[in-house]
Every structure is written in structure tokens, then in C-alpha cells.
Design a protein that fits this description.
single chain, mainly alpha, MetI-like fold, 14 helices, 0% strand, elongated
Length: 315
């Protein structure tokens, strides 16, 4: 080995050496600082972020701040107005509305996050690999996605619900069915978005450089290209969370969600329709909670889109 080759090998070893723990911590702190700075510059994203912080804090602290058992009934306290004992009053069965809102929100947000995460887990690798390999693989993969898009997500969920009731599945199994159905419904959209981003990214020089040094196709697709297309996926998932929450609440409102007495904003709102004249607040609180949650995710998602898309930032 010549002296030039030895120097070249030494340079490659230094260039490809993994960063140390202090370097990683420094990069993480710098990234968090930059993200916070950009977040504060976008009023829409910052307002949505503050609303989400309040929402997640309430969901996490629900076992502590809830004042009553959300399913305990008391017919002597039916339709009681807000008071020091029941902050938001009681419903037609004497159940505390405040506690039901907290527990229902905790469950609803958890299901929505799991459903979107499941859709990302299915759709992102599928779309990335289809777009990277191209050719017949891409054509076949996208035809399967088109077939899923032609099948409405609501019908898919109804199919899962019918099977669940046929097999007499209840409790957590019903929630898992909801997560699975909504995740499958979200998967085609994610796959198409990932595939389109990969098609634009795989022609760039760093991909050619990775191929030249002998990296495997799987490594290039998932370790090189995927981190560079993560921004639109994050924005899409954030906005999708609000949509999923709205869908779950709508299904529960129609009687297709979790059966009572489980706390649920949609089913509580549906049950309150018969008492709109005598006790309108028991319908107002679940409706406002749904609006607040969907608005928070939409504001944060729109703000993230403005921050992460350089073309919008320049305008």
C-alpha cells in the first residue's frame, strides 16, 4: 500500500467514523433549539403547539385530575348543572361530565395516535421501496394501493366491526379493531406520498454516491433517502390525526364505536341530543372538546407545513 493509499484510508476512516456521545448530544440540543426557534416564528404552529401541550397534559394527568368514576351512575343527581361537586354537571345517568370528558379524550387521542402510527408503519416502507426500485415493482405496488383507495375506509371499518360483533369481541379488542381499520385506511395515502417523494429524491447525487461505495439497496432506501423525505410525512401525519379523531367521534355518534358505558365524546354527544332544551351543556362540552382537539392538530400541522417547506417559507 502506497503512502497516498494509506492517507486515503485514514481519511475515509475518520469521515465514516460514528459520532461520539457528546457530539450526538450537541447535535440534538442544536436541533431542538433550531426547531423551537422556527416554531415560535410561525404563529399558527405555535398556537397549535400550545393547544396540544394542554391536551396531552390533560390526557396524561387524567387519573390524577379526574374527580369521579366516569361510569358510576347516580339517578338522584341526573342532569345536575355545573357546581363545585361536578365541575361540568352530570348527564342523564348522573355520571360526572368532567371526568367522562377527560377519560374519553385520553382514550380517543390514544386510539388516533396508534392508528396513524400503524398507517405510517405500513405505508412508509411500502411506498419508499416501491418508489426506489421502480419498474414493474412500482407498477404492481401502486396498483394494489389504487385498489385499496377504491375501497372506502368507512366500509373497511364496518367490515371489521361486523366481524368483531360476530366474534363477540369487547373492550380492548374493540379498540384494536378500530386502530387496525383506520391504520389500513390511512396506509394508501402514506404510501403514495412516500413513493412520490422517493421518485424525486433518488436521482440526487448523494444516492449515486452511496451506490458507488457499495451500499445495499435497502440501506440506501431506508437509511439515506427516508430521512430526507420525513418532513412531508410528519406534516401529513399531524394533520391526519385531527381527521382520524373526527372520524372516530363521528362513528361513535352514529352508534358504530365503542359501546356504552365507556367514556366517548361521540357517543356522549349523540346521547345528549334528547336533552338539548333542558340541559344543553351536556351536549356543548363534548362538541367543544372535539372542535378543540381537531383544531389543535390542524393548526399545528399547517404550521409545520409552512416551517418545513422552504418554498412556502420564502413567500
Amino acid at each position: 500500500m502506497t503512502e497516498i493509499d494509506a492517507r486515503r484510508m485514514t481519511y475515509l476512516d475518520v469521515a465514516t467514523a460514528p459520532p461520539s456521545i457528546p457530539q450526538r448530544m450537541s447535535r440534538l440540543v442544536s436541533a431542538v433549539g433550531n426547531a423551537w426557534h422556527e416554531l415560535r416564528k410561525s404563529r399558527t404552529a405555535f398556537i397549535g403547539f400550545i393547544m396540544l401541550v394542554v391536551l396531552f397534559a390533560a390526557c396524561i394527568a387524567t387519573p390524577v385530575i379526574a374527580t369521579h368514576d366516569p361510569v358510576k351512575q347516580s339517578y338522584r343527581e341526573r342532569l345536575v348543572p355545573p357546581s363545585s361537586e361536578h365541575y361540568l354537571g352530570t348527564d342523564r345517568f348522573g355520571r360526572d361530565v368532567y371526568s367522562r370528558l377527560l377519560w374519553g379524550g385520553r382514550r380517543l387521542v390514544t386510539i388516533a395516535i396508534l392508528a396513524v402510527a400503524f398507517g405510517l408503519l405500513l405505508g412508509v416502507p411500502y411506498g419508499v421501496l416501491a418508489g426506489y426500485f421502480g419498474g414493474r415493482t412500482d407498477t404492481l405496488a401502486m396498483r394494489l394501493v389504487d385498489g385499496l383507495l377504491a375501497f372506502p375506509g368507512l366500509l373497511l371499518y364496518l367490515l371489521f366491526v361486523t366481524l368483531a360483533r360476530e366474534w363477540k369481541l369487547e373492550g380492548i379488542y374493540n379498540d384494536l379493531i378500530l386502530v387496525t381499520a383506520l391504520g389500513f385506511a390511512f396506509m394508501p395515502e402514506v404510501a403514495r406520498l412516500a413513493r412520490g417523494s422517493v421518485l424525486a429524491e433518488k436521482q440526487k447525487e448523494y444516492v449515486e454516491a452511496s451506490r458507488a461505495i457499495g451500499d445495499s439497496h435497502l440501506s440506501i432506501a431506508l437509511r439515506q433517502i427516508l430521512p430526507n423525505i420525513i418532513s412531508p410525512l410528519i406534516v401529513n401525519a399531524t394533520v391526519r390525526l385531527g381527521y382520524v379523531i373526527l372520524i372516530i367521534a363521528a362513528l361513535s355518534f352514529l352508534g358504530l364505536g365503542t359501546p356504552p358505558p365507556t367514556p366517548d365524546w361521540g357517543s356522549d354527544l349523540s346521547a345528549a341530543r334528547d336533552y338539548m332544551e333542558t340541559a344543553p351543556l351536556i351536549a356543548a362540552f363534548p362538541g367543544l372538546a372535539i372542535c378543540y382537539t381537531v383544531l389543535a392538530f390542524n393548526l399545528f400541522g399547517d404550521g409545520l407545513r409552512d416551517i418545513l417547506d422552504p418554498r412556502l417559507a420564502e413567500r
